[in-house]
Amino acid sequence: MTATVPAPRSAPELVDATRDDASLRRFLHGLPGVDQVGLERRSAALATRSIKKESKLQALDMAISMIDLTTLEGADTPGKVRSLCAQARRPDPEHPDVPPVAAVCVYPDLAGTAVEALRGSGVHVAAVATAFPAGRSSREVKLADTRLAVEAGAGEIDMVIDRGAWLTGRYGQVYDEIVAVKQACGSAHLKVILETGELAGYDDVRRASWLALLAGGDVIKTSTGKISPAATLPVVQVMLQAVRDWRRLTGELRGVKAAGGIRTSKDAIRHLVAVHEVAGAEWLTPDLFRFGASSLLGDLLRQRRSQALGHYENADRIGSA
């Protein structure tokens, strides 16, 4: 189950040694295979873990602080984005002790609206780019898409890998595109979306995770949220193993974003348990672990109020994100 790369090289040496198709294939296919039975058994065990009642409020607040509050619809408007940003700042206006979320994620053309609405709040602005969600466009268009978001003030860029190139073994093309997008990001953080539901299995998820890390991704992300399955507990475990082993090998901290299909507080807490058990407590921070969610926040707020009131409130009283 554990994937520790055998050669104790530095990150630059790894990149230099694995930049063409043949070298990348040799490196990626030399990674230890995933023990599917063991992985899924551990996921089932993690899913049964419970936390003490006195720790639940802390876990709920932690999950809220890790959310990328997201709207990625064709009908998005500046008004809708401003409303989302207000919710990001104050998720529960009746309970000002609820922490703000980590970021608001929008399309590049609305990044400027989000930046203005969140100014001074500490909430980050993320923008999807590279012809999200399919990634089916030329590299020039993808880089222009990225620059548009960065110039509008987005501090985080969520890119999608070229799954067509990946699935046909053109690893060098995928690697080069991530490198180019990373350069276009400037100081903005890059989240690399693997779209795990379109990959061939856990071994492919491990290889794609390592490729994204080698190419300079600051965060590896499960999904666009448009494909199912997405952020399953076994898949997230594989990605957590990758960033853990990257840290052991290079000393560098990289993050994971679990996006797609996480809708309840119970799901979120299961993932926090996995983060702690697989990667370590160091990753229990919004800098290194995120939830990409459109409906999770509402359930977290309902659960949080129930801790204080001793009963559930009507769902209509708490808006869903």
Topology diagram in text:
Elements: H1 11-17, H2 21-28, H3 36-47, H4 53-65, E1 67-70, H5 78-89, E2 103-106, H6 111-118, E3 124-128, H7 139-151, E4 156-160, H8 163-167, H9 171-185, E5 189-193, H10 202-214, E6 219-221, H11 233-250, E7 255-259, H12 265-279, E8 289-293, H13 296-309
Parallel strand pairs: 1-2, 1-8, 2-3, 3-4, 4-5, 5-6, 6-7, 7-8
Helix pairs in contact: 3-11, 4-13, 5-6, 7-9, 10-11, 11-12
Q: What name does the CATH topology carry?
A: TIM Barrel
The assigned structural class equals alpha/beta
The tally of beta strands, per DSSP, is 8
Count of DSSP-assigned helices: 13
N to C succession of SSEs? HHHHEHEHEHEHHEHEHEHEH
Helicity level: 40-55%
Which CATH class?
Alpha Beta
Proportion of residues in extended strands: 5-15%
Radius of gyration, in Å, reads: 19 Å
The CATH homologous superfamily is called Aldolase class I
Overall number of domains: 1
- Sequence of strands across the biggest β-sheet: 1-2-3-4-5-6-7-8
What is the annotated CATH architecture? Alpha-Beta Barrel
Describe this protein's structure.
- The protein has a single domain (11-308), classed as Alpha-Beta Barrel (TIM Barrel).
- 48% of the residues lie in helices and 11% in strands.
- It contains 13 helices and eight strands.
- The protein has an eight-stranded parallel beta barrel with strand order 1-2-3-4-5-6-7-8, surrounded by eight helices.
- Helix 7 (139-151) runs parallel beside helix 9.
- The two termini are 36 Å apart.
- Residues 1-10 have low confidence and may be disordered.
